[in-house]
Amino acid sequence: MDLILTIKTIILGIVEGLTEFLPISSTGHLILVGDLLNFNDDKGKLFEIVIQVGAILAVCWEYRAKIAAIIIGLPNQPQAQKFTLNLAIAFVPLASLGLLFGKHIKAVLFKPIPVALAFIIGAFVIIWAEKREHKIRIHEVEDLSPLDALKLGFAQAFALIPGTSRSGATIIGGLLFGLSRKAATEFSFFLAIPTLVAASLYDLYKHRDLLDLATDTPYFAAGLIAAFLSALLAIKALLRYISHHDFIIFAWYRIIFGLIVIATSYSGLAQWTVD
């Protein structure tokens, strides 16, 4: 194994895990960090997709009891059937729009400066959403209706714009639609499972010609493990944080980070990819 490449994969795995479930955009961070590490070719972009599996496994582990209960209850428990149906409904908008427009979005927006702008715009959306009066009508994810799930699915679809944040779009959409912070956050975790699994499998199949399993497997494994461990820490920390705080701090982080990317680009301190 190449030591430098291994370090790069571990760094990207940590970045993926720490940012996937926070409203700060894992894709945006991976694009920027991949650019800095000069790991932004087609193989690098495929790697960024695949290591999301590590973050998915972290959610599955954290909610293993609930997931097991849903699977066991699917044949005859209406609550489990309703929850699964809601996840399927919420998954459809992003999957459909991604298939239609994903290629064009990647060609135009998967670059550092558009990501930085999305960071900043998304921050002001978070601030606006948090300053509004919250009228909570849904306290637990089990209370969601199919219509609520569809609305959250369309909110998640904004994450097709890199730098927006899949979890952030779902969570803030949830707040706007009357979900508690806990319900919105937990639903974003569960919705990540079908969303990220589908994205990973689709990209693996589409770019299977780039894969050399004998060579790539150790690097994928290192990234997956790093993503799993860091995602597990991030999930636990976020659940503790939202019990007493709002999401404003993440908005300020997004603004500062976005401005740093733009400033370093135009000052020449960092040579970001622009085409």
UniProtKB/TrEMBL annotation:
Transmembrane segments: 46-63, 83-102, 108-129, 187-205, 217-239, 251-269
Location of the protein in the cell: Cell membrane
Keyword Lyase: no
Membrane topology classification: Multi-pass membrane protein
Molecular function via GO: undecaprenyl-diphosphatase activity
Reaction catalysis annotation: di-trans,octa-cis-undecaprenyl diphosphate + H2O = di-trans,octa-cis-undecaprenyl phosphate + phosphate + H(+)
Matches recorded under InterPro entries: UppP (IPR003824)
Pfam families per the UniProt record, alphabetical: BacA (PF02673)
Protein's UniProt keywords contain Transmembrane helix: yes
Secretion signal, residue range per the UniProt entry: none
EC number in record: 3.6.1.27
Superkingdom as given in the UniProt entry: Bacteria
Keywords, in A-Z order: Antibiotic resistance, Cell membrane, Cell shape, Cell wall biogenesis/degradation, Hydrolase, Membrane, Peptidoglycan synthesis, Transmembrane, Transmembrane helix
Note: Bacitracin is thought to be involved in the inhibition of peptidoglycan synthesis by sequestering undecaprenyl diphosphate, thereby reducing the pool of lipid carrier available.
Function: Catalyzes the dephosphorylation of undecaprenyl diphosphate (UPP). Confers resistance to bacitracin.
Family: Belongs to the UppP family.
Name used for this protein in its record: Undecaprenyl-diphosphatase
Organism: Candidatus Methylobacter oryzae
